[in-house]
Amino acid sequence: MRILLLSAYDAASHQYWRQSLVSQFPEHDFTALTLPARFFSWRIRGNSLTWAYSQRPVLEQGYDLIIATSMTDLSSLKGFVPALVNIPAIVYFHENQFAYPKSGKEFNSVEPQILSLYTALAGDTVVFNTEYNKRTFLQGCQQLLKKLPDQVPKNIIDILTDRSQVIPVPLLPSSFLQNKVTSGKLQIIWNHRWEFDKGPKLLLDAMLYLKQQGVDFTLHVVGECFRQVPEVFTRIKAQLFEHIGVWGYIEDKVQYQQLLQASDIVLSTALHDFQGISVLEAVAAGCLPVVPNRLAYPELFAPEYCYDDNENELANLTTMIITIAKQKEQRNLKLAPCVSHFSWETQRNHYRKLINNSGSKTHLK
Q1: CATH 3.40.50.2000 residue ranges in the chain?
Q2: How many other C-beta atoms lie within 10 A of the C-beta of residue 172?
Q3: How far apart, in whole angstroms, are the C-alpha atoms of residue 191 and residue 253?
Q4: Reduced to 3 states, what is the DSSP secondary structure of residue 197?
C-alpha cells in the first residue's frame, strides 16, 4: 500500500511515532512530509500552503491512504490539491488544542481549535493516543460549537464520535530494559519539556521540601528545552545545586537509557500530558512512576502511583516520594508496574487493522 504520511509540526513525540510506524510496517511504501516544530501559529495555519505549492509533485503521486497528524490543515490541503480528495485519510491526535493550560502569555485565538476540528472532519478515521485526549477533544468541540452564532450543523459531534478510536503511541522494543538497582541516594528523574505546562514550579517546591526534610536524593532534569526557558529552572539549579545530577537534554540515546535504568523514580508534575511517552519509557526501564491524578495518567497507572491533585497536592506528592525513599533505605523498593501493553508487540495488530481497514475504504464524502 502506498501511504502519504504528513507530520505538519514534527515535534520529538511526533517523530518518535512517525519513525516507529514506518519501521514497523516495511511492507508498506511510506512517503513522509514533515515540517519543523517551530513558529506554532504560522505552522498550523500555513502547512497546507507550504506543501501544496512546494511539494505538489509528491502530493500528486497517487496514494492508497493518507495518515496525517492533527496539526495538519488537511481540509485546506485537500482543497489546494484535488488529487488528495478521494484518498481515505486517518488523522492521528497526539494532543488537542482544547486541553492546554493557560499561561497568560499565549495569543488568544480560536483558530487552532477550529483548524483541528476541520482536520478531524476531513479524515475518515480519527485516532487518539488516550481516552483523555479523545474525551477532551470532543468536549472542547462541543463547547466551541455552542459558542458559534448560527448555522451550526447539529450532528458534528455525532460524526466525530462515530469515527473516533483510541490507539496509543507504542513503545519501541529498545525501551524495555532491566533496572539497575543501586544503593545510596534516591535517584529522581524529571524528563519533560522545559516549559510551564510541565509544572516546574511544583517540581521546585517539592524538591525544596524534600531538602528541608533531609531526604537524601539526586535530581536529574533532562527534558528537551527550547530558546525560551522559564525562569524557574534557573532557581531549581541554584537552590538545589547540591542535589542536581544530570542537567539538560541528553542527545545520546544510550546515555539517556542508562540514566533511566539507574533512576528509582520518574516524576511528573505536568499540567498537560496527553499520553506521557517519557514517563512510560522510564517505567519500561524500571522506574517507579510518581504522577498526578489527572490528565491521561489515571488511564496509564494504578492509583498507588498517582498523587491527588487537590489543595494538598504538594504534601501528597512529597509524601509519596518520602515513602519510596524509606523503602529504598530498607532495600524494599517495589518493582515498576508492567507497561508491556504499550509495546509495539502488543499494539502492532491494532495499527495493522487500522491501516488495512482504512486503506480499503472508498471515500464517500
Answers
A1: 2-170+344-359, 173-341
A2: 15
A3: 13
A4: helix
Q: At what angle do helices 200-212 and 313-329 cross, to 10 degrees?
A: 50
Residue with cell 491524578: 293
Report pLDDT digits (tens) over 271-300.
999 999 999 999 999 999 999 999 999 999
Contact (Cβ atoms closer than 8 angstroms) between residue 207 and residue 288: no
Taking alpha carbons only, the member of 309, 316, 277 closest to residue 294 is 309
Give the three-class secondary structure for 1. coil
Residue whose C-alpha cell reads 459558542 in the numeric block: 147
2-170+344-359 has CATH 3.40.50.2000 classification: yes
Q: What type of residue sits at position 336? A: A
Q: Find out if CATH 1.10.1160.10 is the number for domain 173-341.
A: no
Residue 275 has, within 13 A of its CA and on its CB side, a CA count of: 23
Query: Could you give the residue ranges of the DSSP H alpha helices within the chain?
Result: 12-24, 40-54, 56-59, 74-80, 111-122, 131-147, 156-162, 200-212, 232-239, 253-262, 277-284, 297-300, 313-329, 344-359
- pTM greater than 0.85: yes
**121-161 pLDDT, tens digit each:** 999 999 999 999 999 999 999 999 999 999 999 999 999 99
Instruction: Decide: 298 and 279 in contact? Cβ < 8 Å.
Output: no
CB 317 within 8 A of CB 306: no
Say how far residue 218 (Cα) sits from the centre of its chain: 26
3-class SS at 234? helix
DSSP-assigned beta bridge partners for residue 7: 34
